Amino acid sequence: MFYNFYGGSIEIKNQYKKFLIMKVYIKFLILNFFKSFFYTSLVFLGLVFILNILTEIEFFNKLDVKAYLPLYISMLNSPSLLFEIFPFVFLISTQFFFINLFRDNQLQIFKYSGLKNSKIIMIISATALTIGFFIVFIFYTFSSNLKNIYLEIKNNYTTDDKYLAVITNNGLWIKDTNDGLTNIIHASEIDGKFLVDTFISQFDKKFEVKKHIQAEKIDISKNEWILYKAKIFQNNSSEKKDALEIYSNFDYEKIQSLFSNLSSLSLFELFELKDNYNLLNYSTTEVAIEIHKIISYPVYLLLMTILSSIIMFNTKNFKSTTFKVSIGLFLSVVIYYVNNFFMVMGKTEGISILSSVWLPLFFFAVINSILSLKLNEK
Q1: Helix/strand/coil for 240
Q2: CA 35 to CA 128: how far, in whole Å?
Q3: Distant-in-sequence, close-in-space partners of 188: CB < 8 Å, separation ≥ 6
Q4: pTM for the full predicted model
């Protein structure tokens, strides 16, 4: 009786000791993965910054600006660019994590302690998913705000600084300057290539009102807008015209392109923009895809981490580190273009919005599951 109790107590102590050792190993893996991710992110951020500053120097080459301006706006734009390449960052981070892990036979030590390959992947995958949520809810908000400041500053040095178009819950508002006159245009709705229920206020250089024009709809397919059933208010009198033509710096394509840079909007602002688009009867496809893309981003980063882990376990006997990294980069580029293909299909409404974002991730997960078979035997 005493012997069993004593033996049982020893077994409990051994189990507790194993638990403590396992806890230490888990902390070790998490800390090293985070270090690998952090240093890889810094390297990619540096590369993005250098490439971006070269682009900005070329843009400001013929403009009289302060020497620090290209440097400053490159700093503002770099976090947003880094966000776009985080899948590559996670893949490279994971590869360097395992390269360090394979040194000095550390993997064998983990195996002797009962830490299987699948368990290692689960630990770093959970870490990657946690980092992914942080990137979406904290880093993305931060980078989108900087991107918005970047676009505002750069817009002051383009020929488009006299033109402006925004969508609010009151409809579409356009500021258009041409031949010394400024038109403030408001439309309650967009129906294809027509602005519906529009009101135009025209001002001179001193911003004094010249006239107002009201129209049931405006054909904006070209720069020569055609106003149907227009009513002109000028000098305390009004005049009606079945059709009236005015020139604008905007056409349908340009108005669409103005709202294509969604990376300057936070997730909350994207939801607000989608609601405003619905009120205006404007297509919400691109905004909806962008929202789903951001929401699914942690899953994408998780799958990239798992894929990189599988590659490293299957190539751990290869001596060439360059070859291992090359395999990962090649597969990540393929995945990137497959994702983009589905995104384009979604934007052109060839497939549904949900399918365009989540279907490639589903296939990606299936491929990872197949490749992870017999992983503990590696």
Answers
A1: strand
A2: 12
A3: 171, 196, 197, 198, 280
A4: 0.79
